[in-house]
């Protein structure tokens, strides 16, 4: 991967991973002891990222996708914040599942995860002052999401202490889904979430998890430029528009996805309308009911239905 566009900074959301984060018995809080971690800078991989996600309930986890060498500037800045952030550096080419989940198109790409919710930050290399400003925005956002803790790196040879969070066990089907997602086995994860919902239709985490995994499965192996070219060439092809809307949601461009499908809704036949409605409801679960963009789109969909 190569960096071609100019660096841009923003705080727009991406695919919600919050249902994949184990809740802990230790609550995050400004008055709580710092959670012990091996280092403030860790290597993130497809296989270990679920463990890193756990820490996003305590501090914002900054994620840098690189092509071979992480940016020393970002590394140094994260360390300056003395435990208010954890930095995970990810070799994009070696970790395709993470690259897809974060919609990485170029390197370097920098994102964050706060309480399990990914946030796209910027592409390219920013000057130090701009990078610091982005981190300051992220630090200000974290308490709004209930993330108010700190982490402390262990000294050489130091073992984790009792300040580490104690994980509550997930329900069996959730655990099976969680492990299947980590292995890239989306079909099994979908089946496990469906079993959990069959047992308890009010299982909100299973409903959200199912929507998220369906999105990941639909985008597995998809070539984004080809999908967008196909949608542009066939503006009335519902299947093409649904797939490009998936890309928009994965990249955090919720308004684009909502508008695309809501614009198509009136002209679709009944089967198409049912498909669009189902897909939009999945998107609403992924984004979360508290997102104001969801409320606006839901009102517009209701108006079209009735």
Tell me what you see in this structure.
The structure is a single chain. It is built from twelve helices and eight strands. The chain has helices at 49-54, 72-80, 96-101, 128-141, 172-182, 186-199, 204-219, 224-233, 238-250, 254-264, 270-287, 292-305; strands at 8-13, 35-37, 41-43, 61-66, 86-91, 109-114, 117-123, 151-153. The strands form two sheets. It has a six-stranded mixed beta sheet with strand order 1-7-6-4-5-3, with helices on one face. A two-stranded parallel ribbon has the order 2-8. The longest helix is centred in the C-terminal third of the chain and has 18 residues, at 270-287.
SSE diagram, text form:
Blueprint: E1 8-13, E2 35-37, E3 41-43, H1 49-54, E4 61-66, H2 72-80, E5 86-91, H3 96-101, E6 109-114, E7 117-123, H4 128-141, E8 151-153, H5 172-182, H6 186-199, H7 204-219, H8 224-233, H9 238-250, H10 254-264, H11 270-287, H12 292-305
Parallel strand pairs: 2-8, 3-5, 4-5
Antiparallel strand pairs: 1-7, 4-6, 6-7
């Amino acid at each position: 991967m190569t960096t071609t566009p100019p660096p841009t900074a923003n705080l727009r959301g991406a695919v919600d991973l919050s249902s994949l984060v184990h809740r802990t018995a230790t609550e995050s809080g400004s008055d709580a002891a710092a959670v012990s971690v091996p280092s403030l800078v860790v290597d993130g991989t497809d296989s270990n990222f679920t463990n890193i996600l756990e820490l996003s309930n305590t501090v914002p986890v900054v994620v840098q996708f690189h092509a071979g060498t992480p940016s020393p500037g970002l590394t140094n800045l994260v360390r300056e914040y003395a435990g208010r952030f954890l930095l995970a550096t990810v070799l994009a080419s070696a970790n395709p599942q993470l690259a897809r989940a974060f919609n990485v198109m170029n390197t370097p790409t920098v994102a964050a995860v706060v309480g399990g919710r990914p946030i796209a930050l910027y592409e390219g290399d920013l000057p130090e002052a701009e990078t610091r400003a982005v981190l300051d925005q992220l630090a200000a956002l974290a308490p709004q999401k209930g993330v108010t803790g700190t982490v402390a790196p262990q000294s050489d040879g130091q073992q984790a202490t009792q300040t580490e969070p104690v994980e509550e066990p997930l329900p069996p089907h959730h655990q099976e889904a969680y492990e299947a997602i980590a292995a890239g086995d989306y079909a099994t994860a979908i089946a496990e979430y469906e079993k959990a919902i069959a047992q308890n239709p009010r299982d909100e985490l299973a409903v959200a998890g199912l929507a998220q995994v369906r999105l990941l499965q639909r985008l597995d192996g998809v070539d984004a430029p080809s999908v967008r070219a196909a949608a542009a060439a066939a503006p009335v092809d519902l299947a093409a528009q649904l797939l490009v809307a998936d890309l928009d949601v994965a990249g955090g461009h919720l308004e684009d996805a909502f508008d695309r499908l809501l614009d198509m809704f009136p002209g679709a036949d009944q089967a198409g309308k049912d498909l669009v409605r189902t897909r939009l409801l999945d998107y609403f679960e992924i984004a979360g009911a508290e997102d104001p963009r969801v409320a606006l789109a839901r009102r517009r969909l209701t108006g079209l239905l009735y």
